[in-house]
Amino acid sequence: MKVSHQLESWLSPWGNANVDLLVDKEGKFTGSKGSWFVPLQDNDRYLTWNQYSVTRREHDLVGNIGLGQRWRVGGWLLGYNSFYDKVLSESLARGSVGAEAWGEYLRLSANYYHPLGDWQLRDNQTQEQRMAAGYDVTAQARLPFYQHINTSVSVEQYFGDSVDLFHSGTGYHNPVAVSVGLNYTPVPLVTVTAKHKQGENGVSQNNVGLKLNYRFGVPLKQQLAADEVAISNSLRGSRFDSPERDNLPVVEYRQRKNLTVYLATPPWDLQSGETVQLKLQIHSLHGIKALHWQGDTQALSLTPPVDASSPDGWSIIMPVWNSEPGAANRWRLSVVVEDKQGQRVSSNEIAPGADRAAGQVYHARRLLDGLALEDSLLVDPYRRFHAGFELHFLQHVLYVYFDGAFGDIQATGDHFVRQSLGYQLENVALARGQLADVAIGGGAVGAQAGGQHRR
């Protein structure tokens, strides 16, 4: 009965207030914190609680708020919790879930941390940061024969290409660290801590600290009594102890993309001779030094603006359609942007192409009656050739008229018919029954027979 009364005297409905002062070898108080553990609902078996904390970061503070439950199962106290951590001066936040299993002399804890929110720009303007995803597992044991001593060992790992696990400003890829600690509690109010953290590649960190654990409603004389340590650390007396977790978030960094370029794709079907304005979207933190174009720059008649380092004013002229078999009639173009710091980045590649219907060769699809065309003939304003040769454009089909016989030619645009005014048809003879080609462009209208073409 006396023991039960002593245990209950350590469980105030106002909970516990903790102040942890940590000092590293450089004299910094990074990781120091103050917390308040508040029991929301407590009975003989179940405990629902929340906790509020403020943790010291190198140049700012981190707010921590958590909610959890604990319950007794035989000789164990089991529990789970969830926390929200946020850097008070920045938009950096994370969430965590944890589980714990406490025995009389052994405590096991595990936590998983996950970033909340997107990447944020750092003060140096060249990097972005966010909370890192990771986990830790901790085991604590106190000596049954001397309960003023408590030992701990933990393993933690965080994931990312540049994770600052040691809060030193140096990033590591998926770092892993093992920590061992030793605590000495002369009286329930005071605990002296020492911790060694060992990472990969010889990286390590040492901390010593002083922890003040004040329990509301418990007489100060009782909290300063050495013989009360065993009772306060017992499974029942420690129900209001803070969960074992890392209140100081680990941060992941990545290099900011301070030079990017995008070359907009022009319309797919362009007409020969058409001028196309190129659209460049460039983001450069340090300014543009030069643009280096790659691909079919000569074939596309790449034309620069007055300022060749400007992304605006660049243009190309679409080449003439190539009717040779296998000709792609597409040309490739990309650009490399160089900034004033010497960094280079390549754009996407575009492949503008000429539309065959806008090209300048049209193939007849039926046999034409033979007709001898002698001497040079000119097109008159009514789209007619003398000697009974006429051009007709009806419903996107160009027709050739030979003495009353029609031969249809594959689709083209009517503006090419209009542009044919003033073009010249040179001396060509078409034999009866041969397949004929008619070409419009290059300043002349020609005909092809028997595989020969003259202009």
From TrEMBL:
Residue ranges occupied by any Inverse autotransporter beta-domain domain in the UniProt entry: 2-247
UniProt xrefs under InterPro entries: IAT_beta (IPR024519), IAT_beta_sf (IPR038177), Intimin-Invasin_domain (IPR051715)
Domain of life: Bacteria
Single GO cellular component term: cell outer membrane
Pfam families found in the cross-reference section: IAT_beta
NCBIfam families: PRK10177.1
Family under the similarity heading: Belongs to the intimin/invasin family.
Protein name as annotated: Invasin
Organism: Klebsiella pneumoniae
Origin organism lineage: Bacteria, Pseudomonadati, Pseudomonadota, Gammaproteobacteria, Enterobacterales
